[in-house]
From TrEMBL:
The active site is at S65. Keywords: Antibiotic resistance, Hydrolase, Signal. This is Beta-lactamase. GO terms for molecular function: beta-lactamase activity; penicillin binding. PANTHER family: BETA-LACTAMASE YBXI-RELATED (PTHR30627:SF6), PEPTIDOGLYCAN D,D-TRANSPEPTIDASE (PTHR30627). It is an enzyme of class 3 (hydrolase).
Length: 263
């Protein structure tokens, strides 16, 4: 018993939760766009968070198309997808987004956020395997059943927080998830958004909404700067009707804050 108590004390002494710096001044980046929201950045080099509306970053929201990050890995690991060149055939259903009305490769489907493409991936993975993989990875609070298999990340009760988004991104980047290195490399390749000397930006946007929910926007990802990496998750909430600025605001707010932080 004494040994167990000693070990517990040693653990408590060695455990140091990440520190947090709250930045209420970041409000201006959201008010300029007439939007509410929150921002979270994690610096693993210092084990430190920088946050705007920190409590909100612990609130769960529908993952929307940010789920394509995990969906891609599951599709590759199960063999539904072979590589970034795997073709996702258009189902001939005309949709409002023109880039969805054609065949896409995995790489282009990810970049144009082709919802029907990834819905087909989920159907091919199937309910049993999808549930198993999502549970194995520890992804947010999923609600997956036979009725919502191809939409659980877009509507319904599935949620993920900004903290959880960053945790997943970090584990993926560090290879601490149950996926083959080659599949992690494929994901990293298609997540690349911008590249400048000494800096690479990786990320994925998302948008969830509808008559029963406020419109929620995401931009999650990470920045590699020299030998350092920084993980971020931005979540915005839109009034109705959705303003034209909503879609670009996800990245604009994030990149403005990253610039402010010198990242």
């Amino acid at each position: 018993m004494k040994i167990l108590v000693a070990l517990a004390c040693l653990f408590l002494l060695s455990y140091r939760p990440a520190s947090v710096t709250e930045r209420p001044d970041f409000e201006r980046f959201f008010t300029e766009q007439k939007l509410k929201g929150s921002f979270l950045l994690y610096d693993p080099q210092r084990d430190h968070y920088t946050a705007y509306q920190f409590e909100r970053t612990r609130q769960g929201f529908l993952p929307a198309s940010t789920f394509k990050i995990l969906n891609t890995l599951i599709g590759l690991e199960t063999g539904v997808l072979k590589d970034e060149h795997s073709v996702m055939k258009w189902d001939s259903v005309k949709r409002d987004i023109e880039t969805w009305n054609r065949d896409n490769t995995l790489e282009t489907a990810f970049k144009v956020s082709c919802v029907p493409c990834y819905q087909e991936v989920v159907r091919k993975v199937g309910l049993k395997r999808m549930r198993e993989w999502v549970a194995k990875v520890g992804y947010g609070k999923p609600d997956i059943n036979a009725d919502n298999l191809d939409s659980f990340w877009l509507e319904g009760k599935s949620t993920i927080t900004q903290e959880q988004q960053i945790d997943l991104l970090r584990r993926i980047h560090e290879g601490k998830v149950p996926f083959a290195p080659k599949n992690l490399a494929i994901l990293k390749k298609i997540m690349l958004i911008d590249e400048k000397p000494g800096m690479k930006l990786y990320g994925k946007t998302g948008w969830a909404g509808g008559s029963a929910n406020p419109n929620i926007g995401w931009f999650v990802g990470y920045v590699e700067k020299g030998d350092k990496v920084y993980y971020f998750a931005t979540n915005i909430e839109s009034p109705k009707p959705v303003p034209a600025t909503f879609v670009p605001a996800r990245r604009q707010i994030t990149e403005a804050i990253l610039k402010e932080l010198g990242i």
